[in-house]
From TrEMBL:
Transmembrane segments: none
Cofactor annotation remark: Manganese or magnesium. Binds 1 divalent metal ion per monomer in the absence of substrate. May bind a second metal ion after substrate binding.
Catalytically driven reaction(s): Endonucleolytic cleavage to 5'-phosphomonoester
Domain RNase H type-2 intervals: 12-200
Name of the protein: Ribonuclease HII
Major place of residence: cytoplasm
Organism listed in the record: Cryomorpha ignava
EC category: hydrolase
Highest taxon listed in the record's lineage: Bacteria
Binding site for a divalent metal cation: 18-19, 110
Function, in words: Endonuclease that specifically degrades the RNA of RNA-DNA hybrids.
Amino acid sequence: MARLKSYFKRGLCEAGCDEAGRGCLAGPVVAAAVILPKGWNHPLLNDSKLITENNRDILRQAIEKDFEHWAVGFVSQTEIDEINILNAAFLAMHRALDQLAIKPELILVDGNRFNPYGEIKHECIVKGDSKMRSIAAASVLAKTYRDAYMVNLHTDFPHYNWLKNKGYPTKAHRAAIMEHGSCNHHRMSFTLIKKEALLQ
C-alpha cells in the first residue's frame, strides 16, 4: 500500500484535484475534485497509473459510495483546440470544483501549475497522486470516467481501437488515423500523425 498523506494542512477542508487525458490525441480531458472523508483510506489507493484497470474500478465504486463530496469535469476536444491542453486541464478541474456542494478552504493540485480558482488558496504538488490520498482518489475518478467515455465512443469508431488505447498516441492509433483519417473527436491542434514513428 502506498504511504499517502491524508491532509496537507491539518484542520482545513481540502479538495484534491487531478486530471486524465492530457497526452491523448482524441477525446476530452477529464478532471476530478474530491474532499476526503475524515479517516478514509483504502488498501488499493495509489496513483491511478500504478493501479490495474480492475482495481481502479473497485476504487471508483468505493469512492463514490464513501465520499459525500466529489465531482468530475469534462473539457471537450474542441475546447482543447481553442484554449490549449494546459488551460483545458485547469478548466476541467475548475468545472469539477464548481460542482462540489461545499467549497474547500484549500485546493491540492497534482503537478506544478494551476490557474487560481476564485479566492481559494491552492498548493501544487508534483507527483501529488502518489503523495496525497485526496489527489490519488481524484486521479482514479478522472481516469475511470475518461476511460469509460472513450470505450463508449469506440462503438462508433472501432477502427481507432479506443477500447484499448483510450485515445492515447499509440503506434496503432496513429496508423489508423493515417489509414482512415481523423474524426470529430480528434484534437486537431495536436500532431496526429508522426510518419517516422510508424516506420519504427
